[in-house]
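hey team, just a heads up i'm posting the complex here instead of the shared drive bc the drive is being weird again. everything in one block, sequence lines first with there labels, then the predicted structure for the whole assembly after. its two chains so it's a bit long, scroll down
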Amino acid sequence: MKNKAFYIILLVCILFVSCKKDNQGPVEDGDVNAGGSTTVDVSFVNTFQQPAPNLTAAEIELHRQGDLAFGDIFVTAPSVVNSGLGPVFNQNSCESCHVSNGKSSFPLSTDNTKGLLIRLSMPGTGAHGGPLPVPGFGGQLQTKAVYGKTAEAQLNWQEIEEIKSFVDGEIYALRRFEFSYNNPYIPWPTGVLTSPRIAPAIIGLGLLEAISEADLLANADPDDKNADGISGRPNYGWNEQTQQKQIGRFGWKAAQPTLIQQSAAAYNNDMGITNPIFTKESSFGQLQYDKLNDDPEIDMNTLKVAAFYTQSLGVPKRRNWADAEVRQGKTLFTKIQCDACHKPKFVTGQHPEYPFLSNQTIYPYTDLLLHDMGEALADNRPDFEASGREWRTPPLWGIGLTKTVGSHTNFLHDGRARNLEEAILWHGGEAEKSKEAFRKMSKTERTALIRFIESL
Amino acid sequence: MIKKTPIFPLVFALLFTACKKDDIVPTTDYQEVLSDVSYNVILNTYQQLELKTASLAGSLSVLKNTPTASNLEAARQAWRDARDPWEQSEGFLFGPVDQKGIDPSIDSWPVNQTDLDAVLNSSNALTKAYIDGLDGTLKGFHTIEYLLFGENGNKLVGDFTARQFEYLDGCSQSLLGATQALNDSWREDKDNFISYIINAGKAGNTIYPSQKSALEELMYGMITIADEVGNGKINDPFSQQNVDLEESRFSKNSKKDFADNIRSIKNIYLGSYNNKSGKGMSTIIVGKKAQLDAKLISEIDAAIVAIENIQGSFTEAIFNAKQSVTDAQQKVRALQQTLESEALPIISNL
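-- predicted structure starts here --
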């Protein structure tokens, strides 16, 4: 009996030890589940269209309604359905720019500029410290119009390519655009400031909204007191609902404080759809204003569900995170201080409306703060407290799926970078040191860093 | 007897069994399913769509030149025939159809009636090139439907203006361009999107890192269209009692649209469409859980039958035959539920 017991114990031990590999698995990076409980473990074209898996049944229904609103196509008034497009606009639905909810590519031709728009302003500041609208054009160039009206101007561009090299001698090319505004419907005013913007991916936005203001401010270092060459400061936009200044989080310059307002502004400026937050047409006070008594053209519920859609999409799980090259790249990412602005981790606070966004440990790789990115990237158009050289650090989660989802690899605010390497090489200003460190890396190291970013 | 049982062989036997997973990596290959679904269903559907829109364009050209009642009816039938493969493609709405911005040129809804009237009243030449440049809500299936069938579906050949015939002609040419572009984007000898699915999991595949990921895309595609039919296309006009929300109202083709959407699920599931058959998702499910396979096939068929059994046109039924609409909606929702809660986990755990 003793013997038998011994053998049984031995058997159990051997079984345990020999199968340890199965139970333990490789060491897991902390940031694999980038969206906390909202993380989706899939990798295919429609990845960015998955709802967060931790929604309640009621929230799934709200998400579904939001999905429909996001796809709704607007037409010229009067119409029994989806009335009120324009009179001047950029696109007729949310989906036309946020294709498959991913980042837009730079347009293939000037015939169809979907995914790209131009913000406009005059020097100086307008209401509440925001951009000063351009007389006759407003704050955005609408490149389409309903029948009988005229596009504010036609957008055109020239590509300029510059050849440069890494420190190891390998050549690379950077392209940029010079935009022109042809056939304006009224004379183009002198001194107009312009800022090209590409439609971003819309995953994980609810989580970014749920980060506490204190946590955002904790990373701000406006006077660079720690002398690392990186300042970082919050933008403060205007909350139209509370009629107060509020820390900005959304848009390329973080001028929008909330997702509902971001959505309302997009309805208004991009589609010409008036709504409970922006009740006047984008063309109000201009020659082409429709003078119809049909505002607001969508109700609060539509606006809310559309915003909810952007709040409740799942964030993709990282891929290939255990790969040795990816791990090396992750080390390099920290070593050259990419993480000084692309802050890996936050824990979200309490979301006032949606508990599924609260207390989530997330890895967005952004600080949501403004940074001087240098002359080459500058748009020279201030936006609330953001200067003409400052941009908000964009989140990097999901960036490795850009090609999968959108069939392109265009990055940065105007889509000028044709791949991640070019995007890094465009960094300047506060990121100059990191960029130079990248330029000095060996090819192997550069590739590893890119592989890491692709795993996000 | 027990004492004499040699225990070491037992230990090794157990070890071997317990660690089998470790030692023998499962190498099930789903290439055949992915290949059959891609060629027999997806590409085949897009080929049909291009062929049938070419016929539609031919019919509308004939109608323009010879506007007779019989040519009008032939054009309407050609529209229905072209609509069929499009609706049967909605179970796999991923890839070029969105990425290349093709969908809005094919299936934008609603029709921009205000602008359409203005364009028809203008003196602009209604060429394919001109219509190509217009917004999606002024072209594609629904604009053609609106002009061809009329607001109440009872338009007579004498009710058409010459400009409308011209517009229909140009518009169908433009639609043909879009369906050609879509088919080309999948074709092996053109843009070859099909290779991503067939070669899922192979080195250098920038879209599908594994065969599982491609199979999941197909599963989600089926779930999405079941959701859209049950909770959107049927539910919105029905729950709000509003015919203006019905997608193919002018042609009274909505029931056919819905049934074809479910057929799209069936095609992917069985790997078969239009005289081509092979292996579909069913092959995988049946190997894991034969009962579920039978349940899915029966639920797919039940949903199609229930949709076809909606009494009269869908427009009438949402007011006058509510039970038949509810029944169809329930069958579609049951199918969605089974796909989502029973079939998807099997694929996700491959």
